[in-house]
Design goal:
Elements: H1 7-16, E1 18-21, H2 27-43, E2 48-50, H3 51-54, E3 71-75, H4 77-80, H5 82-88, H6 91-101, E4 105-108, E5 114-118, E6 126-129, E7 142-148, E8 159-161, H7 186-192, E9 205-209, E10 214-216, E11 225-234, E12 251-252
Protein name: Phytanoyl-CoA dioxygenase
InterPro entries: Phytyl_CoA_dOase-like
Cofactor: Fe(2+)
Length: about 260
């Protein structure tokens, strides 16, 4: 089990825009988080986001349609259970963020901060995008953690990512009005052709940059996929006042001791 990133892995994160830390979270922690997530998912405990509300490809047509009650995300994970708060602010995560940013880091509660689900029948397809598209910060330099609570592959909706895309300057016409990469353009198709889908096991953590292009397909398995996702930025980077990015109090991280996650 590794509770840190090596210098080489940090370089990969900076150069490639993502890196996987294998067996980062202990099995016991993952099992406990999964149990809480499944309990709250069964209750659709608020606040939640429904697949039907987003209307992505493959989602139910409405809340009243078949599958309309399918939850896409359990929102505000930090506040919904102490186990999620402990994971999001763990010293090991804080130490990695300090190493990446070169200063203390802060947890954003306005973005991600959720349990992401992907259901077998009604989990939708997510097109190619950058998370920063609707975020508003002084600097576009944020890093997210994606903790797998079960196996993640291309067959059950695992993430696909384009290496190096976080440093690419792509003109506006290559995106549609919703800031998804236009798949009808040959240059975009060539870019998508370079994407990879890291296979994740329970406890693996994918660290990825807010500008990294990524997408996810449908879940073709018979089991719901669950991931815990949080986003961090340097303490000296602030959300723009009055924007959604500034809508929730942020949580400073403490990396003193850098104990196990």
């Amino acid at each position: 089990m590794s509770s840190s990133l090596t210098p080489a892995q940090l370089d990969t994160l900076k150069q490639q825009g993502f890196v996987v830390a294998r067996s980062f979270a202990p099995a016991g922690r993952c099992e406990a988080l999964r149990a809480v997530a499944l309990e709250q998912l069964a209750e659709a405990r608020a606040p939640v986001e429904y697949e039907a509300d987003l209307a992505y490809p493959g989602a139910p047509a409405s809340r009243q349609a078949e599958g309309g009650a399918t939850v896409r995300r359990l929102l505000d994970a930090y506040a919904r259970h102490p186990l999620f708060a402990e994971w999001a602010t763990s010293p090991a995560v804080a130490a990695i963020m300090r190493a990446y940013f070169g200063e203390s880091a802060v947890l954003s509660r306005a973005h991600h901060n959720c349990v992401m689900t992907k259901h077998p029948r009604f989990g939708s397809l997510t097109g190619w995008h950058r998370d920063i598209r609707y975020w508003s910060f002084e600097r576009e330099d944020l890093v997210s953690t994606w903790l797998a609570l079960g196996e993640e592959t291309s067959d059950n909706g695992g993430l696909w990512l384009v290496p190096g895309s976080h440093v690419m300057e792509l003109p506006a016409h290559r995106f549609d009005a919703a800031q998804f990469l236009r798949e009808d353009l040959p240059e975009n198709a060539a870019l998508i052709g370079t994407a990879v889908c890291p296979r994740l096991e329970p406890g693996d953590v994918l660290f990825f940059h807010c500008r990294t292009l990524h997408a996810a397909g449908r879940n073709q398995s018979d089991r719901v996929k669950l991931s815990v996702v949080h986003t961090y930025h340097a303490a000296s980077t602030h959300p723009h006042p009055g924007t959604r990015s500034a809508s929730k109090p942020e949580i400073p991280l403490n990396d003193a001791g850098a104990s196990a996650p």
